[in-house]
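Incident review: delayed structure delivery

Summary: a single-chain prediction request sat in the queue longer than the usual turnaround. Root cause was a stuck worker, restarted by the on-call engineer. No data loss occurred. The affected request and its eventual output are reproduced below so the record is complete for anyone auditing the incident later.

Affected input:
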Amino acid sequence: MSDDNIMYDSPSEFLHEVAEKKGECVAQSVIPLEDGTYLCACSCERWEVIAPDRWKGLDLARQHTRSV
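Output delivered after worker restart:
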């Protein structure tokens, strides 16, 4: 595995961590919908929006987590 990969945990370890930290902003998703828009959500369960494209969805997720 390359050292520049940010995913150091296995997928199951990552999902376990998300479950342990329910209500916290530890994971965001940008999922394509059939109409060409993207559903964006956070593991905190307090943020969910529809974005017109993938890049806007990623930008909105960064804004949500204040990582911009």
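Verification: Strands lie at 28-32, 38-42, 48-51.
Action items: add queue-age alerting; document worker restart procedure.
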